[in-house]
Amino acid sequence: TRDAPALERLIATLRGDEPEPVEAPAVEPPAAAPDVPAETLKKAMRAFRKRLKLTRLDHESKLGVGPMTGGRKASFDAILPPHEFPPEVWRALVAEGKLRDLGAGFFQLEEDADHGPSGLPT
Q1: Position 7 pLDDT exceeds 90
Q2: Is 101 buried (19+), middle (13-18) or exposed (0-12) by CB count in 10 A?
Q3: pTM to 2 decimal places
Q4: What is the distance between the alpha carbons of residues 6 and 14, in angstroms, rounded to a whole number?
Q5: At CB < 8 A and 24+ separation, what contacts does 104-108 make?
């Protein structure tokens, strides 16, 4: 993010000038997990797992892998969640500890979080 006042303070500090005292911005408490019905959360998790499975299958079946070989394993663990559910549902699943939010809209199954792309514990 661009913070012009912080940049001006930094420049003033580097020049040796006395920067103006600045009030610390108010920190908002983290938002509580939204109330989402349990049935919706269950459907969302099922849709997320299905999307992850289909994305992995699609990635592993790309051209260039010989039909007589074992193929290649998908090297990703996170996906964008299905758009059929609002962001509040995904935040609730993160709050429950079922998903991990990796930022930029990507989520990962919590049980996959302790394993690297090779499937071995990291």
Answers
A1: no
A2: middle
A3: 0.61
A4: 12
A5: 105/80, 105/81, 106/78, 106/79, 106/80, 107/48, 107/78, 107/79, 107/80, 107/81, 108/77, 108/78
